[in-house]
Amino acid sequence: MSDQEVMGLIHRGQAFKNGEVWRPEKKQYFAANLFFESSTRTHKSFEVAEKKLGIDVIDFATATSSVQKGETLYDTVLTMSAIGVDCVVIRHSDENYYDALIQSPTIQCSVINGGDGSGQHPTQCLLDLMTIYEEFGSFKGLNVAIVGDITHSRVAKSNMQMLKRLGAHVYFSGPRQWYDETFDVYGTYLPLDELIGKMDVLMMLRVQHERHDPNESFSKEVYHKKFGLTDDRAKKMKEQAIIMHPAPVNRDVEIADSLVEGLQSRIVRQMTNGVYVRMAILEAILHGKA
Ligand code: CP
């Protein structure tokens, strides 16, 4: 997507938030949310977005679908397309799962990536961008720190790319073993205590235990003290700086419980903005198809 297309979705998300309505180009659209990995926010905010737009949502759960008989993702989406579903939202543990779907000559429905393994989470990125834009009105020159389990975070990967493109200065912090030098092209890795007083946005990441070696030892207390946003660290933040987290949050691990709903936190707003930016994405895709 071009920067203009990204900004267009952010502005359209804001318009939906301010009460703008969708004027569909045909009477009936169908969407299916195919979640092969667990999700609360992405799944349910897409469902709310679809329902707010009047799109018919096709019920789908892997546990009661033919996935249980061994049907592949490709054949599941082929089926959705064949029965007339206009777009599918997919979360899957395989990175780039969508390549085979979008290259298929038979699959006609649009595919929205709801998160592919540790690859990308573009709709989370757009809601994060909308939240930052709402706060600061621009990305140029903003100091944004992405902190925590960066290697395993698809949110971090989408955000580092887009924030740099839009003119923000990106910084990284967290355990060295969860940082990859390939991220150096997007920003600068520094200890959190060197960054904390200079950042406009602190984007804390969930420690993704499910993607770690189960034999790896981990202490919540040690992590919180060394890499987390503690109450003491938060006192050193700029007054206008905001705290973000894609959630779900491990309270008192990557961020102190007391800060999650605090004055500088935009974590709840991120969830709310997710509905509106996803409405903008659905509208853009379905109008493009009509
Ligand atoms: N932020 C996010 O993607 O949350 P879910 O895993 O609950 O969808």
From TrEMBL:
Reactions that this protein is recorded to catalyse: carbamoyl phosphate + L-aspartate = N-carbamoyl-L-aspartate + phosphate + H(+)
EC number: 2.1.3.2
Span of domain Aspartate/ornithine carbamoyltransferase carbamoyl-P binding: 2-134
Domain Aspartate/ornithine carbamoyltransferase Asp/Orn-binding residues, every copy: 140-284
Entry-linked Pfam families: OTCace (PF00185), OTCace_N (PF02729)
Stored InterPro entries: Asp/Orn_carbamoyltranf_P-bd (IPR006132), Asp/Orn_carbamoylTrfase (IPR006130), Asp/Orn_carbamoylTrfase_sf (IPR036901), Asp_carbamoyltransf (IPR002082), Asp_carbamoyltransf_Asp/Orn-bd (IPR006131)
UniProt binding sites for L-aspartate: K69, R154, R206
Pathway noted in the entry: Pyrimidine metabolism; UMP biosynthesis via de novo pathway; (S)-dihydroorotate from bicarbonate: step 2/3
Binding site for carbamoyl phosphate: R41, T42, R91, H121, Q124, A247, P248
Gene Ontology CC annotation, any one: cytosol
Enzyme class: transferase
Single GO molecular function: amino acid binding
Keywords attached to this entry: Pyrimidine biosynthesis, Transferase
Function: Catalyzes the condensation of carbamoyl phosphate and aspartate to form carbamoyl aspartate and inorganic phosphate, the committed step in the de novo pyrimidine nucleotide biosynthesis pathway.
Subunit structure: Heterododecamer (2C3:3R2) of six catalytic PyrB chains organized as two trimers (C3), and six regulatory PyrI chains organized as three dimers (R2).
The family this protein is said to belong to: Belongs to the aspartate/ornithine carbamoyltransferase superfamily. ATCase family.
Name this protein carries in UniProt: Aspartate carbamoyltransferase
Protein species of origin: Tetragenococcus halophilus subsp. halophilus
